[in-house]
Amino acid sequence: MSFVPLPSAVALPVPAVGLLSVRLSTAADDAFIDELQAIAFGPGRFARTAFRVRERFPIDTSLSLIAEVDGEPCGSVWMTPISISGLNGYLLGPLATHPNFRKRGAGKLLAREVTRLALARGEGQFVLLVGDQDYYCPLGWEITTPGAIQFPGPVDVTRVLLYAEDKTLATSLHGTIAAFKQS
Fold first, then answer.
1. According to the model, what pLDDT value does residue 153 have?
2. Chain center to CA of 70
3. b/e per residue, 152-180, with b = 16+ CB within 10 A?
């Protein structure tokens, strides 16, 4: 799979639905994010393995983004700094779009923009996620070696995907998810 560059723009016109934009979240967005995650993932969200990662390693609030259509919040995404075998990166998620705004590009814009912002810092070399190949692979994510990355709980190894400029990482990265290594 070839490298798919992430867009630098944070606002895209969306036909018939208004202007889609992305911004950093604030404390005022907390209730929206909680409600959105409850709608998108239900009560079982707290039992998910990715939630266990976020319990151990807090999200980076400077990489917490909100998507809006004409100023109305419609989606959110978080990033959690992690490391695997001493290599720093990020765990993307949860990524959620309100049902009233699905299929309009907000989720893909959030995934691209948060990944661009995280990797542009130069502190991490990859973005890892557990998600649908059909959704994320066209955006540049690649399938990892099944079982090579150990999560703190069960995960469908066919859904573990990685984005990195170094395309060998998807097949070579292995180990247990650990804390982000500070320089």
1. 87
2. 23
3. eeebeeeebbbbbeeeebbeebeeebeee
